[in-house]
Amino acid sequence: MTTTEPAAGTFRRARSPEAKAAREQAILDAARALAAERGIREVTLTDIADAVGMHKSAMLRYFETREEIFLRLTADGWREWTPVVCARVRAASGTSAVAASFASSLAERGAFCDLLAQAPMNLERNVSVEAVRAFKLTTGESLALIVAAVRETIPGLTPAAAVDLVATATSLAGTFWQISTPPPEIAELYRTDPRLGHALVDLEPRLRRILAAYLVGAVAE
Predict the structure, then answer these.
(1) Residue 112 CB: number of other CB atoms within 10 A?
(2) pLDDT, tens digit (0-9, with 9 covering 90-100), for 62-83
(3) Is the Cβ–Cβ distance between 74 and 119 less than 8 Å?
(4) What pLDDT was estimated at residue 200?
(5) How far is 150 from 162, CA to CA, in rounded Å?
(6) Are 80 and 48 in contact (CB under 8 A)?
(7) Helices (H), 39-63
(8) CB 64 within 8 Å of CB 127
(9) 9, 46, 99, 161: least buried by Cβ within 10 Å?
(10) How many Å separate Cα 52 from the centre of its chain?
């Protein structure tokens, strides 16, 4: 990755709250760009430090671990996705359209889907209790807003069923994104071997079908 940032070791420690916030944002922006280019699993703390022109030990003053950085990005992803999916759900009519609202808004956010898959497996497991608390408070706020939007559009859906819809959508989006974006050589294998056609996954239509079926059952129940 090409960067115009200063060489490692040239940054001075941020003294004011504003400078600290700016430094944290620079770290988050670098991690986001690297993850979009390589995938989260391939990005190390050293990679992020190099991208912002800091020594790794200096960066630890702002974030304790690489997992904390990506957990913050996951929280940012929830904040960005929530108003989008809420607007689409409120403009929808019927269970199929609501399912499509979730599927399309998630499929458009590959990096967020990658983070959704990594969060419970890795990102929440190498951070402080306070970092997890902050993350869960963010997701809880988003969940409440999305559930309210869904129940406005589908009044017959119970609160628990609406919560399950969000959980199903986000967990499957994370899983299907991982499956649908294999390394190039594996993708070529799937395309060229007719016996492996079942391994080719198109995230949006599959997620839409599953969520639509779920909603039909949840409303009937």
Answers:
(1) 22
(2) 998 999 999 999 999 999 999 9
(3) yes
(4) 84
(5) 7
(6) no
(7) 45-52, 56-59
(8) yes
(9) 9
(10) 22
